Amino acid sequence: MATFSTQTDIHWYLNRHMSKQDLLAAVGNVPYHSGSTHTGDALKAIREQVFTQSHGDRQLAKNVVIVLTDGKSNNRLETIKEAQTLHLISDDVISIGVGAGIDMKEIQTIATDNHHVFDLQSYSALHTISSDLMRIICNA
Asked: What is the 3-state secondary structure (H, E, C) of the chain?
């Protein structure tokens, strides 16, 4: 789990939480940081720091990434480059854009394909896509 704005903060790795209860408690304590939107840096951090064997990545398990953003990247070209590199190790990159401040073309480029793209008006609408997310994740 990582959050990003001006910088990327990795809150935990794949081998950190072993129970649903522990994971849900941790998700509830993730802080929101405002700032610039360095999406490319976040995608690179996930690829280089999270998807590693020492941090719980399993060779035979598919990597699924969910990118949730409410802004446009400060460096669109870097974001596109990092998304393309991430696609080499993850068949399922899901992009969720929230609010009016997103760049839909950028969100589509980050995602694996258009079936992995979601456009929401607000964070409170996240529950409306939960079954779609589960379908994608469980088929990974």
From this structure: CEEECCCEEECCCCCCCCCHHHHHHHHCCCCCCCCCCCHHHHHHHHHHHHCCHHHCCCCCCCCEEEEEECCCCCCHHHHHHHHHHHHCCCCEEEEEEECCCCCHHHHHHHCCCHHHEEEECCHHHHHHHHHHHHHHHHCC
